[in-house]
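Protein Entry — a single chain follows
Fields — amino acid sequence, structure tokens
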Amino acid sequence: MRIIGFINAFDELAEADLRLGRKVANYGLASALMEHSRADEIHFFLPFQRALAYFQRGYAPWLEAPERGGRIRLLPAVKLPVALMQTRYHAFHAAELDRYFPELCHLRNRLAAEPFPVTCTTHTLSYWSTQVRNLYKVLPGPRPWDAVFCTSRAAVEHLRRAFSASAAALAELGLQGAGFAGRLERVPLGVNAEALAGPPRAEAQAQLGLEPGVFTVLYLGRLTPSDKCDLRPLVGLLGQMAREAPVRLILAGSGSRAYAEELVAAAAQFGFRRGVKTFLEFESALKPVLLAACDVFVSPADNLQETFGLSILEAMAAGRPVVASDFSGYRDLVKEGETGFLVPTYGPADYGLMDAFWPIAAERTAALQVAQRTALDLDVLAARLRLLRDRPELARRMGEAGRRRVLRRFHWPVVIRAMEEHWDRLKDEALRLGAAPAPRDVLGAGQGEVFGHFPTRAIAPGDVLAPGPLAGAFGHGPWGREPYPDLGGMLPPAGLELILQELEAAGGRAELREVQARLAGRMPAYLVEHLVLAGLKYGVLSLVGGAEGV
């Protein structure tokens, strides 16, 4: 049986309307897995109980489909250790590089019924916290059959350099054998190409209230210079072009309204104010209309935060030519001269004090200081936009080629197939190499080792248990249910009821080890211990004493 595990914070589900970026990508991946995966079961591990309602609402079209009944399981993350012991997973995927990946590797090494690959997907790589967490990835834990699914060649090269630098620094400190033991595989994100096909251009422009017959350039993305790109150079350039022939710039996305107002004010300096149309915080259903309304899609990214370019894929899927920065993952998406154009970018040769400031800077400030030293070749950008303005047939052919490219390489069914092929190969390698002794998690000791001295003492096998002062209330109100749903049923009241029954059968008193022996086969010893502590906490049980008591 092929069972895939999947874990994420699922923070995208807290938003009523998804428009852009990482959250759209994560939502798309989870829904595409449910729709296109060949797995017999997919286990989604949710971080807290509240996420269950969000998940059920957000993914209702897939959860409610009769043909998928019983195939999708929703589990609280707190049950992951038990699931790893009881389930033979084919693979386990973390939706983001910065969350869960090395921790999952260590859990798998320690608990799994059989070896399986742990994988994750890259998103933002520019944060200092990401570099710190890279240290965890080059320490023992990941195995040769684990992999980071890098969304672009730029991401592969970034992590190769980052992991190598971290391993070399640790080696200088005397830690030999450091290095990322897994693989860096190139696996892109995807889009639902069918959902992005919009109405004819004239109809789309009429729906948006736009005057027909004007060359229209669309920017659709985050409106923030510290998290995406500085759009002022583009506004100025189009202001100059507007003196030659009518041109319109649509700014659509989420972000700072103040920044959008700054861009409109900048356009006014060029007499271009009426040529700029803004659609802030638009409903996601409007995205295909916005894409259909433009002649050219432009993305002049200059920010290290940008590693892939999902909006570029969406524009290509909508059949629009793309003019974008020759930057990061963009060069993997746009086929130069075929689906659009890549504009050369120029960055610093000496990062100097920027590197010194990086660890202490606010994330967006650190990204902005580099972005302000990353320049697009505006002469080339202007030439490419003029070419597409003057040759609409070329623009049409590039748009059609872009859509074909998306359907061939970036449509979600294609991407899911590629992911599963990687999982198959990695699983085969895991079974071939076999489980090895679990490497020590060198980042620290367990909670018992470092916090075990906080209580007066630990409960002991010889401690004598008896019904507590509130045992009569058990089964009523808070004493009859687990009070904290986020614990995922890990302390089931029914188990505490069994303990009370065994105490009654033993004459009202019994040592902890005796209760554990009586319940062997029905409940693991550690769970009996934990339930006893919960019973003591709520007065359902009392500690009488014993050979190892106080």
Notes: Residues 87 and 502 are 30 Å apart (CA to CA). The chain has three domains: 3-190+415-433, 193-410, 447-546. The mean pLDDT is 91.
